[in-house]
Amino acid sequence: MTDGARRLLILGTGAIARTHAEKFALIPGCELVAAADMNAERARDFAAAHAIPNAFGSLADAIAWDGFDAAVNSTPDAAHHPTTMQLLAAGKPVFCEKPLALNHADALQMTEAAEAAGLVNMVNLTYRNASALQTARRMIDAGEIGEVRHVQASYLQSWLTGRHWGDWRTEERWLWRLSSRHGSKGVMGDIGVHILDFATYGTGLDITGLSARMKTFDKADGGAIDVYTLDVNDSVAMTVEFANGALGVVHMSRFATGKLNDLDLLIHGDRGALKIWANHLDSSLEVCLGPDIDTQTWTPYPCPPTPRNEERFVIALLSGQNGEPDFRHATRIQKLLDLTFVADAEARTLPVD
Ligand SMILES: NC(=O)c1ccc[n+]([C@@H]2O[C@H](COP(=O)([O-])OP(=O)(O)OC[C@H]3O[C@@H](n4cnc5c(N)ncnc54)[C@H](O)[C@@H]3O)[C@@H](O)[C@H]2O)c1
Fold first, then answer.
1. Whether the Cβ atoms of residue 32 and residue 70 lie closer than 8 Å to each other
2. For 39-84, what is the HEC assignment?
3. N or C: which end of the chain has fewer CB within 10 A?
4. Distance (Å, rounded) from C-alpha 29 to C-alpha 315?
5. Which residue puts its alpha carbon closest to atom 6 of ligand 1?
């Protein structure tokens, strides 16, 4: 271990933890020292696969050992709040997976606990890693497209119709995402947080009002598979208003056949427009500026690389200065999430004869 390197615990050793293990292993200034999972065998296998020297069958055991400086929380959504509160109480900075919590009240409690303890707190809103998003935001801040007037944002996946990511009918990691009793908030909690972050960060504008419709489609006989009741939303369509009065549509689905994992954001300003695309591996930016406005010509725009959230977390640990996106920002996104459920429940849908 290099001098002063921060010793990291990975908590929850499922699918996303593999990405974190690979990425953190490449970052100078940190060392993966332990893996913990409520499934002790999974933790041991994970530790062995990633050359991590210690494995634990619970967070409590890892905290009792106390050989780590900070934690990467890769547990499922419902476990984020209780486990993060335990970590913060033990004085450990946390890099938490999204959504930060299951509701705004829990997210706020996590934020206030981290801030009161003066601990670094960050959330893995992954698409901040998209260089196109960061470049677009700098252009907006520099006034290159003028006043934002209209926004289209979507996050589309198709793992309910294709088998490219395995079979959701038989795999635990997909089934918990379909069941409210297992702590899922549906497509809204899973990827809605990403597209709301993408749209608000990309435009540099908060969302000040929203309406929404959510849909849960029949997916299995009796609406259940094994212990999983398939009751959460599969598709969501929102209309939103931004702080400057601009309107936007934001939609997301797991039933978007033909789309693997695509985020699209179009930002139309009164002096130009930006078209951002990203997935988990890559991103691109096209611009329509100046005289191109009269011909609707779009031109690819170069985007310098941007640090990943994992790197920003290590920088924050080493500097003691909190990084972005932090718990407080994720708590604002959580508020939008909660309000989307309220808007759906209370909205009037006008039937068309
Ligand atoms: N940022 C992203 O792009 C991204 C991508 C995928 C998943 N995620 C998020 O990462 C989290 C995990 O998703 P996943 O796909 O890796 O799930 P997963 O089901 O593959 O893995 C979760 C692991 O956590 C363990 N676990 C559950 N409760 C625990 C507890 N209390 N203590 C210790 N271990 C516990 C489980 O045994 C399992 O091994 C979710 O919150 C998900 O939303 C984020």
1. no
2. CHHHHHHHHHHCCCCEEECCHHHHHHHCCCCEEEECCCHHHHHHHH
3. C
4. 8
5. 16
Shared-domain flag, residues 137 and 230:
yes
For residue 275, the surrounding DSSP H or E stretch is: strand 272-278
Total structural domains in the chain?
Answer: 2
Atom 33 of ligand 1, residue of closest alpha carbon: 37
Please tell me whether residues 277 and 174 are part of one structural domain. Answer: yes
Nearest atom, ligand 1, residue 77 CA: 41
Q: Is residue 264 part of a domain?
A: yes
Indicate if ligand 1 lies below 6 Å from the C-beta of 331. Answer: no
Is 22 contained in some domain?
Answer: yes
pLDDT in tens, 31-84: 999 999 999 999 999 999 999 999 999 999 999 999 999 999 999 999 999 999
Residue 74, ligand 1, Cβ within 6 A: yes
The β-bridge partners of 122 are 95, 326
Residue 63 and residue 190 in one domain:
no
Range of the domain at 36: 6-126
Instruction: Verify whether ligand 1 is closer than 6 Å to residue 124 (CB atom).
Output: yes
Q: Say whether both 143 and 210 belong to one domain.
A: yes
pLDDT tens by residue, 148-180: 999 999 999 999 999 999 999 999 999 999 999
- Work out the pLDDT band at 1, boundaries 50, 70, 90: very low
Compute the half-sphere exposure of residue 204: CA atoms within 13 Å on the CB side of its CA: 16
CATH of the domain at 226: 3.30.360.10
173 lines ligand 1 (CB under 6 A): yes
Judge if the beta carbon of residue 308 lies within 6 A of ligand 1: no
Average pLDDT of the residues in 329-350: 92
Distance from Cα 12 to the centre of ligand 1, integer Å:
6
- List pLDDT tens digits, range 300-339: 999 999 999 999 999 999 999 999 999 999 999 999 999 9
The predicted-structure confidence for 226-265, as pLDDT tens digits, reads as follows 999 999 999 999 999 999 999 999 999 999 999 999 999 9
**Does 311 map to a domain?**
no
Whether residue 82 sits in one domain with residue 18: yes
